[in-house]
Amino acid sequence: MLKNFFPNKILSFSNKLFSFLIVLMLLFVFVGLIYALFLSPPDFTQGDSVRIMYVHVPASFIALGCFGFMGIASICALIFKIKILPLMAKSLAPVGSVFALVSIVTGSLWGKPTWGTWWAWDARLTSMLILFIFYIAYISVWKFVDNYEKANRVTSIIAIIGSLNLPVIKYSVDWWNTLHQTSSITLTSAPTIHYTMLIPLIIMLIGTILYTLIVFLMRYKTEIMKFKLDKRNKEN
Amino acid sequence: MLSKKARSRIVILTFLLALAAAVVYGVLKSLEENVVYFFSPTELYNKEDISFNKKIRVGGLVKEGSINNDQTSVNFIVTDLNNEIIVSYKGSLPNLFSEGKGVVAEGKLKDKKYFIADKILAKHDENYMPPEVSKILKKTKE
User: Fold this and answer.
1) Chain B: residue whose CA lies nearest to A50
2) What ipTM was reported for this prediction?
3) Among residues 105-124 of chain B, which lie with CB inside 8 Å of chain A?
4) Long-range CB contacts for residues A134-142, cutoff 8 Å, separation at least 24
């Protein structure tokens, strides 16, 4: 399956398939938003503020997931020296970082009417901010370091060290007393979110994943083309 | 499948990662006091190095029927179902502050049983449901 991401295959990724992905994404996001903003019920405690959750949760999921992928890709690149892996990680970083920012901002907008504060230095929020900083560091090194091999080495380390933060973010609400609530959806127990809210949330999550995939593919194609061009220029 | 070089890289990386994880663990453990956002009433009760001048936070549930408004301040009890502490606060309360719900109070301890807060935050739990469902749940509890 990894072979599909090799330069030859990815550059011939059919436009029809791509358009299909975009239409599918728009469908999920559109339906998801209709449910999130209008058709789903308000919450018995927080009223309509709950609707921010339909953006905040998928964004957080993507922010963590992308960085996880970047970490795994960096480790595998270091071990097996597969050339396309750093490019894949590089292509994931921008969309992941945007969603990390969306998570923090939407969380803040939700926190003010609910908790009574825009921000709190609890474990969940602080570790999320650290994740965003790692994203910025990762993107900056690729941007400002000219030598590909050097940038590759430094960003791989940033991705791997930053990945250690991921379980901290996820379990911060369980390991310590935090202001942020514990997870409503877990692998081991029944969800504490009613199905009338859980289903729109899942629809939004799928739509967001599709969106991330599309943006990733667009960027990855560009990175591959840039890489090939740079290689050709160096040989001349 | 795994070349000798790849295998040695895996070993080195695993070792370095385990080391890094241990460092992260050690740092978080030693910073525990600063990482927790608040103490529960029980944790405060059992705490030995309590200082009555340091700003700390206590969190828990607002005890049912404990909210008392007098002329200048509001008093209520924060409980973690094991221990309680009385909190006194002057100022406006967040909208979601109510009995039986989570709260985090920031301020100073007057003594082990009495806390003077200068900031109150409402803590939201992990339950999400429509108002109708919550009404049905309340009825079945009674």
Assistant:
1) B128
2) 0.88
3) 120-124
4) A134/A67, A134/A158, A134/A159, A134/A161, A134/A162, A134/A165, A135/A63, A135/A67, A135/A93, A135/A96, A135/A97, A135/A100, A135/A162, A136/A97, A138/A70, A138/A93, A138/A162, A139/A93, A139/A94, A139/A97, A142/A90, A142/A93
